[in-house]
């Protein structure tokens, strides 16, 4: 285990009651990488994320964040997370873009501490990084799905995390804006040096943006550089997705 | 009413108590409403009634208690709030179930206590609908202490409470002590409910926590503004309501609530008119 790894997943298995959701999953994400974690629906992606975020405890295996076993990991401000459900919040909630983004600093700042100039600047910076400066004072409920998703990314990066995990962030984003959205993520990765883990079921779009790919469907089917993934035969991919269909037909 | 206020202590007491409640009830109310827990206030007010009925019963039967029934009301209210939390975690997928359970439990207990006492004098009536003349100096001190605690807590826990209200899952994931903070919050709600009922009465307590907020979220930009407007609407209805009820000889609780309803209607139509 080197210090150069932002995330390392080692022989992780997880089951809900009798059903195996993850079986012996091992991969790592070097610092500065942009990993696309792909897999069909129901492949265990969300479960794996919950394990990485410490919300679920795998029955077997270990997870390391920045070289520290997750059970001992305390520096959660180094990890940002944008949930799949982030933009299914109560849209009537009276909060401005600024207020939502500032709330991302709550844990880092700690109890009984107040926002100062420094935090306000960080908020402004994060809002600019996602291209939402114009909407700073608007209520978040008045924005489009894609704009809201950008706000949630700003909230996640405002505490300057080194690792940012995004769970299906383009769900609910207008198709025309998806490309823009990925460009923005690429910027965050290249220019701010944030290590990204992007979870998606959409294999096509991301392969040109990411540096690494991991394919998950209970087992890890592939893990390596994006260039190697692009060389994979179509047969391999269909086997990967086909297996999933097979499983589903037995379940339902 | 101004001259009368200098003359009569009970009017001064009612005024101070009203102003404080007009501040703290909408202040907590904002967090309650945006978390879709509006009915919690109703459930807790009925539990408070059970506490007051119990206190009055003990006073009548045993003659052992001559302390303020407010204390036992608060005790019941806090206990009720903890039970709601417990029930909410038991029924994870039906969290709103906790509210009718506690509400009907509270009213059931109250009825038993009232019938055991073979009915009470007008005292209980003043708790049901609020009564200006019933506010004692001791009540005012209790309300002052509660108000200080509430304002200080909101001040110091503002960013945590905001995050918890806006996105509970994210709050938990980011490692905030969400349970502890929520616990503190719900106890405050219980205390404020017990404190407010002297003025507006148990049956109307929840209105002071929800109506000003309902009006405010129609017009506010951002959360801080929502709080400011809620408190403003709350104070406006309480102060104007107390004056009006005194001058026109109306029930203060009802007058305050109806003024809040008017403000709400104005806010709704203003928003509609502004949108065109």
What does this structure look like?
The complex is a heterodimer of chains A (252) and B (276). By secondary structure, chain A is α/β, with parallel strands linked by helices. Chain A has a domain at 5-89 and 161-251: Rossmann fold (3-Layer(aba) Sandwich), CATH 3.40.50. Helix content of chain A is 35%, strand content 26%. The longest helix of chain A is centred in the last third of the chain and has 18 residues, at 234-251. In chain A, helix 4 (117-129) packs across helix 5 (145-157). Chain A has a 6-stranded mixed β-sheet, with helices on both faces. Chain A has a 4-stranded antiparallel β-sheet with strand order 2-1-4-5, covered by helices on one side. Chain B is mostly helical and 276 residues long. Chain B has a single domain (2-275), classed as Orthogonal Bundle (ABC transporter involved in vitamin B12 uptake, BtuC). Chain B is 83% helix and 0% strand. Chain B contains 12 helices and no strands.
Count of extended strands of chain A: 10
In the CATH scheme, the class of chain B would be Mainly Alpha
Order of helices and strands of chain B: HHHHHHHHHHHH
Enumerate the spans of chain A where pLDDT stays under 50 for 5 or more consecutive residues.
Answer: 244-252
Strand and helix order of chain A: EEEHEEEHHHHEHEHEEHH
Q: Largest interface, with Cβ-Cβ < 8 Å?
A: A-B, 32 and 29 residues
CATH architecture of chain B: Orthogonal Bundle
Instruction: Supply the CATH class of the domain at 5-89 and 161-251 in chain A.
Output: Alpha Beta
- The secondary-structure class of chain A comes to alpha/beta
CATH architecture of the domain at 5-89 and 161-251 in chain A: 3-Layer(aba) Sandwich
Amount of helix of chain B: over 70%
Shape of chain B: globular
Mean pLDDT of chain B: 89
Give the helix level of chain A as a range of percent: 25-40%
* Proportion of beta-strand residues of chain B: under 5%
* Distinct helical segment count of chain A: 9
Could you state the CATH homologous superfamily of chain B? Answer: ABC transporter involved in vitamin B12 uptake, BtuC
